[in-house]
Amino acid sequence: MAAVSPWFFTHYGPDSWNKNWIYRADDWLFVRRWEQLIKMRNSVDFVQVISWNASFQGAQPNSQAWVDGYPHEAWLRLNSFFSRAFKDGIYPRIVKDVIFVWARPHPKGAIANEGVPRPEKWELTDDLMWIVVFATAPATIKIQTSNSKACTRHVDIEAGVIKLSSPLEIGGGIKVVMLRDDLVMAECTAIGYRFEERPGVHNFNAFVAASE
After folding, report:
1. What are phi and psi of 150, to 5 degrees?
2. What predicted TM-score, i.e. pTM, was given to this entire model?
3. What is the pLDDT along the chain (212 residues), one digit of tens a residue?
4. Is residue 66 within 8 Å of residue 174, measured between CB atoms?
5. What are the phi and psi torsion angles at 117 (to 5°)?
6. Which H or E run contains 37?
């Protein structure tokens, strides 16, 4: 058996479960791990997704502060693409333009006014959003992290599975748009997401979103 995981963060103090750490999941770890396993599929009997960090993942008592409001369902769609490639030995043909994004809700160095400190290994992560694009043809990706045009990036991409990243802006949100021939092919807005400077709790969970 081989393991794959998109994310892991737990935040319990010594007065409860005494589990307070992250495993670094930056640099599109979920996708890169799947790509690695697909190359190794002749040597791997099956793959297990071992952690999801979501509200439906087993019993997580008193975890609402870092779980509620942080959807992960979009990872299911991403997972289905790569799990199919693992099963079949060939990647599915991309027939629809799709954008996936995920990011943490505050800078890694932020200090929250709570009794539990930042998790162990907090300094190993990066203050970036992670973007994966399924592109049926070459396109331009527009990345916005605030209402300011100065915080908008344009990236030309080829067809296929494309991995991008971008810095986050304090007080800003996330909007990623795919343009082709000046037409919007896909748009992903992380509704309810804001990159907070002063969080109420140390939250190293991920907010995950995808275009329709």
Report:
1. -65, -20
2. 0.94
3. 999 999 999 999 998 889 999 999 999 999 999 999 999 999 999 999 988 766 544 456 677 788 888 999 999 999 999 999 999 999 999 999 999 999 999 999 999 999 999 999 999 999 999 999 999 999 999 999 987 766 789 999 999 999 999 999 999 999 999 999 999 999 999 999 999 999 999 999 999 999 99
4. no
5. -70, 175
6. helix 29-39
